[in-house]
Amino acid sequence: MTTVSWVTAFLDLPPDVHAAGTHFWSAVTGYAVSPARGDDAEFTTLLPPVGDPYLKIQRTDADGGDTAPGVHLDLHVTSPEQSSARAEAHGAEVVHRSEHGYVVLRSPGGFVFCFVHEPLAQRPWPTRWPQEHESVVDQVCLDIPPAAYEAECTFWSELTGWPLRGSVSRPEFHHLVHPDGIPVRLLLQRLVEPAHGPVTGHLDLACDDRPTEVSRHVGLGATVVADHGGGWTTLRDPTGAHYCITDRDPRSGLGR
Predict the structure, then answer these.
(1) Residue 234 is part of a domain; what is its CATH number?
(2) Range of the domain at 149
(3) Shared domain check, 187 and 133
(4) For the range 28-32, what are the long-range contacts, defined as Cβ-Cβ under 8 Å and sequence gap of 24 or more?
(5) How many structural domains does the chain have?
(6) Residue 65's pLDDT band (boundaries 50, 70, 90)?
(7) In terms of domains, do 137 and 49 share one?
(8) Residue in 5, 237, 22 with CA at minimum distance from that of residue 120
(9) pLDDT tens per residue across span 192-242
(10) pTM for this structure?
């Protein structure tokens, strides 16, 4: 088991949509954008006004085949090398060992994640908007083809040591029960289609007034894809990536 002390969600944006995506997610969260860093100034961080950052953006290399927006995770651990060895024992594949100390891996189903050593501890509170409601990006949903679902659920629970919990009303969903203070929940969704292929991911927000929050996002350039009634709304951001606004409590992350 690897002790994960923090989780960062990374938006991976190709060059042609990087500026639009950065502007949109900064406006959605109310977080400022940090100065760029990295060998090619490819990394930025969304900076909450209070608390430690947990949302970052990477401009991907279109020449390397990264032509669509995506999401990956950074898992914060004491020793990326030791954690990587444990992950390999559970079926992960090491993709890259960086001279900067982080390790890039793929889960058995093909989802990219990194082990990093960056001690962070103060979870930001939800943002309160002028419309008198609150929202926060607090979840990454792993979208898993059915052929890989059971193995992927087992992998993430064994890797983190976090208990796996199912949904009584939605058997296609499981989530990992993470320790208090970690800003990003992990939800695992069994897709209907495609039956095979790599695991992907998308961001979810929790809010206490979904119609008002959806309207705010549409005003910022999002498009509503589907309203799922008493649960969540699926939208498409200006980069073309799907994400969801949910009815979960923005402070506890639990359903209401």
Answers:
(1) 3.10.180.10
(2) 127-246
(3) yes
(4) 28/137, 28/205, 28/217, 28/220, 29/55, 29/127, 29/136, 29/137, 30/127, 30/129, 31/55
(5) 2
(6) low
(7) no
(8) 5
(9) 988 789 999 999 999 999 999 999 999 999 999 999 887 999 999 999 999
(10) 0.96
